[in-house]
Amino acid sequence: MNFLSQSWLIDRRHALRAMGTCISLPFLECMVPLGAEERQTETPRRSAFIYLANGVHSLNYQITTPGKDYEFSRSLKPLEKHRPFITPVSGLHHPGSLGHHHNCIDIWLTGAKIGPSERNTISVDQRMAEVTAQHTRYPSMEIALTQGSLAWTADGVQLPAMRRCSEIFASLFEEPKGGIEAQRRVLRRKASVLDDNLAEVRRLEQQMG
User: Fold this and answer.
1) I want to staple 144 with a disulfide (CB 3.0 to 4.6 A). Which of 91, 140, 161, 199 is the partner?
2) Of 160, 105, 128, nearest to 45 (Cα)?
3) Are the C-beta atoms of 172 and 162 separated by less than 8 Å?
4) What is the C-alpha separation between 180 and 174, in angstroms, rounded?
5) CA–CA–CA angle 61, 67, 70 (5° rounding)
6) What is the DSSP letter of 95?
7) How far is CA 6 from CA 9, 10, 91, 172, 173, in A?
8) pLDDT digits 0-9 by tens, 50-96
9) Are residues 111 and 54 in contact, defined by beta-carbon separation less than 8 angstroms?
């Protein structure tokens, strides 16, 4: 095996042809070419929110013992090897979801109150996307098995989710319209606009004291 030439690198698209599209391939350090690894200054930050609908015993997916020496439940036991990188957060239960069996998915990431006169608000994933969108090809990706989506805009509009494997595959691996360089120009333009806005906000803060 020639490590210097890196002829052993795994091609993600090639792997998907062999294993199918209904899988999620992790970003492996061995997939990074030597030159790219040298240029990479910071590991990209990612976030994922996974909602388990009705049909599972929720207590099996909770930390059993709180505190520094917390213990994983049986279903979470495979995460033990990642303990140094995990920070359990408690106290996020939404009491307003009780009694709203079929609406829990709508407020899981918003914390909104359910009622005839209330409307939903922005979900936490979309709030994060407002900050990270300049660094990514897509601000966020919504993927679901059934109807509905976890993502909501600030205006209370539910974002549609992708369900077909072919659609998800195309979004992740096919070249964007206009080519990759065109996509990079769009990302750079987004970053420039956000930088200008941030500079203006800082100037206003100085003027207002």
Assistant:
1) 161
2) 128
3) no
4) 10
5) 45
6) G
7) 6, 10, 47, 24, 22
8) 887 766 777 788 888 878 888 898 888 999 999 988 888 877 776 66
9) no
